[in-house]
TrEMBL record:
Pfam families: YhfH (PF14149). The lineage of its organism: Bacteria, Bacillati, Bacillota, Bacilli, Bacillales. This is YhfH family protein. It comes from Peribacillus butanolivorans.
Length: 46
């Protein structure tokens, strides 16, 4: 069994998509948000 380079795994992952609207999310380092900025701005926090 051949072990793949870990960096190659991350290069081949599909872009993250917002589950609310389906738009592609531009990921930032150490960001664990699942929704895009547009959908997050529409959300009301209680």
């Amino acid at each position: 069994m051949q072990t793949k380079n870990p960096l190659e795994l991350f290069r081949t992952l599909p872009p993250k998509q917002c589950p609310e609207c389906g738009d592609q999310i531009t990921e930032q380092a150490e960001s664990y948000l699942m929704e895009c900025d547009h959908c997050l701005s529409k959300r009301e926090d209680y």
